[in-house]
Design a protein that fits this description.
The chain has 369 residues and is an alpha/beta fold. The protein has 13 helices and eleven strands. It has a single domain (19-315), classed as Aldolase class I (TIM Barrel), CATH 3.20.20.70. Bound molecules: iron/sulfur cluster. Iron/sulfur cluster (SF4) is lined by residues 239, 242, 324-325, 328, 330-331, 334-336, 351-352, 355, 357, 359.
Amino acid sequence: MSRAEHAVSSRFAFDRAPRRVYWELTRACDLACRHCRAEAVPWRDPREFSPTEGRRFLDALTEFGRPAPHVVLTGGDPLKRPDLWELIDYGVGLGLPLSLAPSATEALTRDVIRRLKDSGLKAMSLSLDGSTQKLHDGIRQVGGCFSRTVEAALDTVAAGIPLQVNTLVTAENVEDVPDLHCLVGVIGATRWSLFFLVPMGRGRVLGQLTAARCEELLQWLVQVSRESRFVVTTTEAPHYRRVVLQRIRAERRNRGEACQSAIRQGFGLRDGNGIMFISHTGDVQPSGFLPLVAGNVRAASPVEIYREAEPFRRLRQPERFTGRCGRCEFREICGGSRARAYAASGDPYGEDPLCPYQPARRASADGGC
Ligand code: SF4
């Protein structure tokens, strides 16, 4: 790698610490959504962490140093763990920023949401895949889920907890996305994350977008993100950053302004590069959607696994990716969905088939003009 490439690469590499740690507290969940990544079941796995192991794991995360990674408590449904409150208290006491991704079940009452606010939680996320009961419940195949989700979302906003709404985008609901955008605004969420389907777990039953339709949607998203009162992000579609950057540059060219890189916070973040996932049994993966186990936190330090283990090290080296993503001038800020590359070809370092971009040449690695 040249010195210039190395300088750019370091700028977007999260070599020392992840920005976000997703901890799957349990796979137990009272819902049975047909596209569940975790293939959740109603009962808890006896191999889950004990409360003592949970606290020990939170202690180990502090060894990443400052700033501490943001820990997202996910599942299954984290509310299925009776020691959830104790773990939140403990993590908050350690100075770890914590968020919760609960399921919209009857357990998520207004009182529970108020208690979550009082516990010091930084944010909460809920999933909405359709703008109406018929669409959302039809996609999830769980009756009554839509109204419970909207009620819990309104209660979360009312309690003063910043709310992220997650939407799974598939061929089935793509035409409903503009209506969902309106609904997210009405609810008062602070963030909307569109998750682009990776065909794994029970998600294999759903239809994926074509690369061309995805590109159209991302172009639309750039436009509406400017008019929204909430932040719009994508999950497993990092080429949204390429679309944003291309749009900004085109506009500057049209205005006759100098074309400089417009780099935003979060650029470069992708599976294994700023993101780490811990399963309910302690297995460490680059993300929940990329099932490459790099170690287990029952046997090794999460810091050591994140910094030293393959595939983490290689996932932070986009110059070693293959196909279009390896040649792409946007590979540092984007790099493609490693989870989708793996699901499509078995090669986590291959190209992301959801992006139609044809790299022009090996320009400066941040896509500079
Ligand atoms: S080709 Fe790969 S690296 Fe380039 S923009 Fe598309 S997904 Fe990103």
